[in-house]
Design brief:
By secondary structure, this protein is of the alpha/beta class. The chain has two domains: 48 residues; 170 residues, Alpha-Beta Plaits, CATH 3.30.70.270. 51% of the residues lie in helices and 15% in strands. The chain contains seven helices and six strands. The relative contact order is 0.13.
């Protein structure tokens, strides 16, 4: 074998061929391992997304649960601040739901909850957020909606549910809902410190509606100001 420049031994043909084949095989091995790692990462990512979805989904209704509300509430507030849009919340409670469970059993009660979720979905735009908050309570975040739009949405929901025949044991069930409406107008979004203020205001409005009887709507803004107009407290027809 000849000495190369500077005294280094030059590789002969066989050695060069061996080195080339080794590099090719080594590259194949690395490529295969990288592919295996990519597949494992994709499987892991899919599993994480599946677990996140399970943790955020209510198994009875298929709606998002209250754990999903926290990140979406922050996201909606951030979007409202950037675009200077109002934000409203409806807090919806099924009147007399405890009596449904006691009289007809939890199987019928769960079916009522699923039907209720389906009815509420029908009133949601793609940008709205519908949550089963817990028990027989639902929260609906209305993106880019001021007081008038939120009140109109509450009226439509109340009318639709009141006219619906829920399946019970034997005769159909007629139910009503108490709805609390809260609005954060666009001029107040930037100064609001706690996104949950919107939800708790709607919750408070819902309790005030229930005090007036079943099938009522009541409105509060995030600063605790009650609506003076009596039309917000009309009984459902």
């Amino acid at each position: 074998m000849d000495e190369g420049e500077g005294g280094r031994r030059a590789l002969d043909f066989d050695e060069k061929n061996f080195l080339f084949e080794w590099l090719v095989e080594n590259n194949k091995t690395l490529t295969r391992k990288n592919k295996e790692l990519l597949v494992e990462n994709l499987k892991l990512r899919s599993r994480v997304e599946e677990l996140e979805k399970i943790s955020f989904i209510d198994p009875t209704t298929g709606l998002y649960n209250r754990w999903y509300l926290q990140p979406r509430l922050v996201e909606e507030f951030s979007r409202a601040r950037r675009r200077e849009f109002p934000l409203s919340c409806l807090f919806i409670d099924i009147d007399g739901f405890k009596a449904v469970n006691e009289r007809h059993g939890h199987f019928v009660g769960d079916r009522v909850l699923r039907d209720m979720a389906q009815l509420l979905r029908g009133h949601c735009r793609k940008e709205d957020v519908l949550i089963r908050f817990g028990g027989d309570e639902f929260v609906l975040l209305l993106s880019s909606s001021g007081r008038r739009a939120a009140r109109a949405a509450a009226e439509r929901i109340r009318g639709r549910i009141g006219a619906h025949a829920f399946v019970g044991e034997g005769a159909p069930l007629t139910l009503s809902v108490s709805i609390g409406v809260s609005t954060l107008e666009k001029q107040h979004v930037a100064s609001s410190g706690d996104p949950w203020e919107l939800v708790w205001s709607a919750d408070g409005a819902m309790h005030l509606a229930r005090q007036k009887g079943p099938g009522r709507i009541h409105w509060l803004d995030c600063r605790g100001n009650r609506e003076k107009a009596g039309c917000g407290e009309r009984a459902a027809s």
